[in-house]
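#lab-general

N.A. 3:47 PM
ok so I finally got the sequence cleaned up, no stray characters, all 380 residues accounted for. can someone with queue access submit it? mine expired

B.Y. 3:52 PM
send it over

N.A. 3:53 PM
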Amino acid sequence: MKEQPVLPRRRRSLYVDFLERCLLTGLYGHRKINELLRAVIQHADLEGHSVSVLYLDVDDFRPINDQYGYETGDLVLQHVGEQLRLEVRAQDHIGRFGGDEFLIVLPETTAQEAENLAYGIQKRVREQRFFAANYEEALPVTLSIGVAEYPLDARSIKDLIAAAVSAKEHAQHEGIAKLQRRGISYELFVAKSSGALELYLLSLKDKDTYTVQHSEDVADYTMLLATALGLPESMQVELRTAGLFHDIGKVLIPDPILKKPGRLTEEEFVSMKSHVTISHDILAAHYTSEVMRDGVKHHHERYDGRGYPTGLCGEDIPLAGRIVAIADAFSAMTLDRSYRKSKTVDEALAEIRRCAGTQFDPKLSEVFCEEVEKRRTLQP
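B.Y. 4:20 PM
back already:
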């Protein structure tokens, strides 16, 4: 049997390196980036330098895969990889560490310097918006980033990556976190922003101006009812936030379904209904408030139990869901759509009263109608 030729050591190394970088993102794979990190740390030990790593996670990657398919998800990862290459320095190494996670090795770099680089990466990814193929719409692609420094945060590769992962989890959603030392203890400082949610609203405005106006109205009507009910001020604020973001999941509903003027098919309706759970998952990643989550998740439940996603009925539906449901319906009725004219305020109030006890909580419905009528009499 003829022996296979063996590539010279230098050529073989370049060939294997080429194969690893020619995968989906064109970046190093998990094994290779670990090898490079080990080599960088060994050199740092000899020279007395610091080494930092950035552990990056694509926010809300699963909903993008679920709504647009794995091909679009792959394109998102390629897009992120390209932005990372454009932002890092020549001496840095980038690897795809997991499904939607990346690791950047930063030789001769302190945590503070790494944090500055992380801010630049986030800024670039936010500004270089990703447009889904065949839909001509921008998707909200953002990153959460954890920062860790060797040897101050860890003395081994395993512990260094674990420290960066832990910081990233504290940074979620679209924040940057690092460990800073106070004596022998560790205290976690997290730099966060509302950039991700702002980007969601911006992307939603690109897709559907109606939904943005509708969401602002729902926030207003939700606050109106919450105030009339005498709920605590903190709860009123949480309900207003739930109203503002109750439809944010529609940013991941494909345009042909979201903007379809006619009746949706059964399959399309199933896709449309998924915006409720997507909205809930997005909001839950940013806020721990149960009131907010309930308002978003349950605003399409019906008092008679025929709603979705859980089919709860009566007062088993969380109060926040019952409140947002009324505000949502009233706003929808009083705004023009491309396929129908809006109802007058009187017509919409009559519909709320007619559906009290079936679609809406009867007591909340009457309070809401009275407050809308009272507001109208006070307006000049």
